[in-house]
Amino acid sequence: MPVDLDDAEVAELIALLTEQIANEHHRASPRAMVLQAILDKLESEDTQQTRPQTERTRRIHAYVTRWTKEVEAEEQTFEREQVRAQVPSWITTLIMCAGLLAAIALIVYVSR
């Protein structure tokens, strides 16, 4: 459904969508994904028609891109830390099992 918007209206719509996406806590939320799809369509139409971006839109887009990269980096770091945290729990479990087996062996040895 094509909508007839002039350059200023498209620029403002892109700026508003970009701000809303930036305000979403999780980039993968359904709302953010829908807004991003709309923004991608607008920007692809904008690129096809070579509409000039306003300075405000450029700054907001740069902020969102940088923010998205920061969130992705934080999520990757968090996932790596979770994996590292799981390794000691396996080691601790293994040591506890070994200690339990040693205690059972000692009880069996003493009871003979």
Q: Topology of this structure?
A:
Elements: H1 7-23, H2 30-48, H3 55-111
Helix pairs in contact: 1-2, 1-3
Description:
This protein is mainly alpha-helical. It has one domain (7-87). 83% of the residues lie in helices and 0% in strands. The chain has helices at 7-23, 30-48, 55-111. Helix 1 runs antiparallel to helix 2. The radius of gyration is 27 Å and the shape is rod-shaped. The protein starts with 6 loop residues before the first helix and ends with a helix. The model has no long low-confidence stretch (mean pLDDT 78).
SSE run = HHH
What is the helix fraction of residues, given as a range?
over 70%
What is the first-to-last residue Cα distance? 87 Å
The secondary structure category is mainly alpha
What is the domain tally?
A: 1
Low confidence ranges: none
- Summed up, the helix count is 3
Could you write a compact summary of the structure shown?
With 112 residues, this protein is an all-alpha fold.
List the defining traits of the structure above.
single chain; 112 residues; mainly alpha; 83% helix; 0% strand; rod-shaped
